[in-house]
Amino acid sequence: MERTAIRRRLTWQVATVTDVRRETGTARTIVLEVPDWPGHLAGQHLDVRLTADDGYRASRSYSIASAWSDSQGSTIELTVEQVPDGEVSPYLVDVLKVGDPLEIRGPVGGWFVWKPEQDGPVQLIGGGSGVVPLRAMLRAHAHTGSTTPFRLLYSVRRPESVIYVSDLKELASSDDVDVRLVYTREAPAGEPRVGRIDADVISKYAFTPQDGATTYVCGPTPFVETVADLLVAAGHDPARVRTERFGPTGGPR
Amino acid sequence: MGIVSPGFTGRQRGGTELPPGQYLTRDFPVLSAGPTPHVLTEHWEFTVTSETGEKYRWDWAALMALPAEEITKDIHCVTRWSKLQTTWKGVSLDTLLADVETGADYAMAHSYGGYTTNVPVDDLLDGQSWIVYEFDGEPLDPEHGGPARLLVPHLYFWKSAKWVRGLVLSDTEDLGFWETAGYHEYGDPWKEQRYAGD
Ligand SMILES: Cc1cc2nc3c(=O)[nH]c(=O)nc-3n(C[C@H](O)[C@H](O)[C@H](O)COP(=O)(O)OP(=O)(O)OC[C@H]3O[C@@H](n4cnc5c(N)ncnc54)[C@H](O)[C@@H]3O)c2cc1C
Asked: Cβ distance A138 to A165 under 8 Å?
């Protein structure tokens, strides 16, 4: 497997919320001003730490939704989907407001990343909030002017669950980017298929094993397991399939 | 540094049995970098390679023939979940390394699928580590590292290499997969050694 040497001490820093944007009924994008942000690769994540007034703390990891460029100065974006009864995500989606401080530490992760100089086309497959790091890769693709072919397969429950609607429209207008939505519960008018990503969808819309693509799969664990297994069964080289699992298994084990 | 997050109350404060920054889960989440390898036990093999290049091999039947232990341990994942009192069955690394001639200080665990992680040999011995093949009384699922994984419960769970296929012993410390990608080289949850330099 490929190696990336990023061994640098990570310290907590205080970011400031400069903007928030509703994406869906349950997801929100948070724009942060981070004075000492060292930059990041598309696909990396950071840790967020919350502190209650008695000193109690809770931390969680969140993918960075934006691509890094010097021109953006020190601004980064996170997109958080509210998990019912969650400790941290409801705070980030509903309570945190513009002007508030937020402690973060990052960037982290050197594997689930896309670098513009990397060889071969890119297949992105996301489920739910798993689209977040994939959006950072699409953004990096756009602003570096890369002509690497990109395809996004994005699984959502229903049209209202799509995060980054206008963004995806804009990105999909590029000749090098193909965006395909898969609806699992309810599809918009004119879209007959309702159902999860299966072998058929993979063979129709994803790059083939011969295309030499690197595939990035991100979402809840069962989604990632299913999609990664489908890719391997379709003949994709496991070494070219990179995964990021966001949540629990959904079962007792 | 001490900031307070305006409006954050958090959950009810739990006991102190968890390492810092961890929370309790009843699920068994999965952390891995790629697709799950599906390895059949008839093709499975475990190899220890000493620092002089000597190889010691066990196939599945040989592993099954070794004395097994029931292990009950808390596990702590660097993505912040902890699970208490998990039960496993497997073979102690003390047993597997008993006849291996080595003075090496470091081990690199290698897995089917290409994953690696580095662990000091001292942390593999003295009843601290196992090759496990059952979880909760059932054969270990491929998703959780089956047919067999390393179990080093006193370190963050990424050290407990899933789909383990061997150990390479060495006098020098090399870094494994997550360690190269910015995670801590040792990974003690009680010292919260998550990332390099922690
Ligand atoms: C590397 C990494 C990157 C991540 N990036 C993002 C991101 O960009 N956006 C984002 O929204 N989340 C992301 N997550 C998930 C995030 O870290 C939290 O797990 C999530 O926000 C839930 O935290 P919580 O405190 O609200 O819920 P918790 O209090 O931790 O959990 C409450 C309940 O919800 C369940 N649960 C926890 N997470 C999920 C989930 N994802 N889906 C369904 N049920 C769940 C738990 O098992 C528990 O029963 C990422 C996780 C990782 C490991």
From this structure: no
